[in-house]
Amino acid sequence: MAANRKQDNGNREDGSRNISRRDLLKMAGIGGAGLLLGGAGVGALFKSNQDNSASASASPTNSSYHEEIPFYGEHQAGIVTPAQDFVVFASFDVTASSIDEVRKLFKDWTAAAAVITQGGMLGEDNENLNVPPSDTGEAAGLQPSKTTLTFGVGPSFFDGRFGLADRKPAELQDLPAFNGDALRKEWVGGDIGVQACANDMQVAFRAIRNLARVARGKAALRWTQEGFQRTSGADPSGGTARNLMGFKDGTGNPDVTDAAKMNEVVWTQSSDGPQWMAGGSYMVVRRIRIRVEVWDRSTLGEQEATFGRYRTSGAPLGGEQEFDPIDLEKKDEKGKPVIPVGAHIRVAKENGVQILRRSYSYSSGLDTRTGQLDAGLLFVAFNRNVAKQFIPMQRTLAASDRLNEYIEHNGSALFACFPGVKEGGYIGDTLL
Amino acid sequence: MKAKLMFASLVLAMSVVFTGCSSDNSKETDTAAKPADTAQTSSDSSDLNAKLKDVLEQYRQFSIEQSDQLIVETEKFVAAVKGGDLEQAKALYAPTRMYYERIEPIAEALGNFDPDIDARDGDVEAADWRGFHRIEKGLWEDNKTAGTEEFADRLLSDVKSLRALMETVEVDTAMLTTGAVELLNEVSSSKVTGEEERYSHTDLYDFVANVEGAKKIYELLKPELASQDADLEKSIGEKFTALEALLAKYKSGDGYVLFTELKEDNTRELSQALDALAEPLSQMGKALGV
């Protein structure tokens, strides 16, 4: 314990990021850091620390826990960052009454986020027996585990309390009601949304717990949802993750290493307006329950027809490999489309709209009313313009996707995620 | 009633934890970390206690006044119980308890009074259960005074013993700063959920009394706090005001509405206002240099 304490102190004191013990581990070239850096050496190491998170797009590896993802950058991390193993999503209601307090909250959060994402301990009072420790402590000595924190504001943030009504983006409205929506108020909306992702659940939880603590008196948790996917350790190949229906989910995602594509699909451009959103992105969060028991008693044929893919390979029906092109015209010997009408990928493909999906599975125990599993998908997606991308796409899916028989959208929120934070700046400083 | 983290037990607990988790280098860790920390803080604390001598004495007087009044009111309550006046006993129950709830951390620091006076069903062995809540059960659940008389007598003798020991209590600054937070933690863990007064549903009386007890401590420490950390002092003051304004909405006559009249939105709002206050309040010790 004494040794740990010494090490933590060392990390805390090097605000300017001198070479830490962790960096030395990295430079030994083991695991993910070694793969990422190749033979480029120490200079490249520090460069990569300052680059935007998109540069950290190596496939997940067993030792990815050692990696930290820079908090500061042109864009917020946690958007084009390859999805970590776990998420804790948190929606907050602002309880502060003045914009000065809100600004203070975002400044405090900025300082906390910069420490949390780099695996450090918050504050200075972590040894004084007579005061509550500054950091809640459950991540003491743990690796940064690729923690990212992504912040956005919801439509209600602009309701007039803070004099920001005229700065609200036109498309930042509560999502419209889609066919079949069964929203429950305990999982809807929020003034502020925070997505915490990490390759360790405890690390991710600690992030939200401490942000909520820092926020007390200025913002209160409205709802949270934890999510997971197969860990990078369980799937060293880094292949497309499967959802709880057993199918690969996310095959059709755009390539996050294609900067031009990201500008087209994900990042709000300055020409889109408002100016404070340039470099930001709209985050859609939907809590989608899967009717697990019903799905489990449907035949494999029905399941594959529902998705339009083979369960094992993930290939589109009629194809061989996961990434084979989707052929909507192909007919079987009876003249019926191989990918049936209403199949999930057919509806999505015909729709033609692209978004960046970054979903996780969730399991929240039982629905006490029925004794059935409350499990499903914490759908998270980023898009440049929600009115032109997610909303029309979801309208079509809600109207005709065969999956609807097996799922229920019971939570929903939309947040305008700010552009990245520059060092010396703070979260949301383009707006506040 | 719930386990408390008084200063002394915290030190004890810490040493248990240190011992428990350091199987490979235990001796080294224990001697290296703990004594140095405590030695440093205790010398700072004695300076601080000397500086705040008047404040500490005022708090001691406040506690004594509250426990004096607790005896007076408990005597009336006990008289109603033993006189078989059910309505009067019910009417006096919640207001009487407030004198205890304002100074609960002191009572807990003084020994085994809290379980005797304030245990709920299940907190202690059934055979040992007595105090306010035992009587509460008789008055509301059985709807009669009969059968609670002996508990009423015991209650009165317990609060008198508490008062006697009050003379001996040594109040220090750490007791105040942790006590203020503990009072709010009491609310957070049982009053805001309606578990404290499960038969009478008079939880809001306890809620208010706990907040008043914490407010008293804040007000006594306020001048020193303002000189050490004006922002913190201001923030705590504002959060007290906000919470008091919320509580005022539930006033009814001389008292408060029953917990069962609150909706989930109401308790959530109260709970969040309480957390908003308790977090800066928990920083008082740090600001004062406890």
TrEMBL record, chain A:
Belongs to the DyP-type peroxidase family. Residues 240-421 form the Dyp-type peroxidase C-terminal domain. PROSITE patterns: DYP_PEROXIDASE, TAT. The gene is efeB. Its cofactor is heme b. Binds 1 heme b (iron(II)-protoporphyrin IX) group non-covalently per subunit. Its EC number is 1.11.1.-. It comes from the Bacteria. InterPro entries: Dimeric_a/b-barrel, Dyp_perox_C, Dyp_perox_N, Dyp_peroxidase, EfeB/EfeN, TAT_signal, TAT_signal_bac_arc. Pfam families: Dyp_perox_C, Dyp_perox_N. This is Deferrochelatase. It is found in: Cell envelope.
Automatic annotation (TrEMBL), chain B:
The keyword Lipoprotein applies. It comes from the Bacteria. Residues 1-19 form the signal peptide. It is found in: Cell envelope. Residues 56-284 form the Imelysin-like domain. Keywords: Lipoprotein, Signal. The keyword Signal applies. Residues 25-47 are annotated as: Disordered. Gene3D superfamilies: M75 peptidase, HXXE motif. CDD domains: Imelysin-like_EfeO. Belongs to the EfeM/EfeO family. PANTHER family: IRON UPTAKE SYSTEM COMPONENT EFEO. This is EfeM/EfeO family lipoprotein. It comes from Paenibacillus terricola. The lineage of its organism: Bacteria, Bacillati, Bacillota, Bacilli, Bacillales.
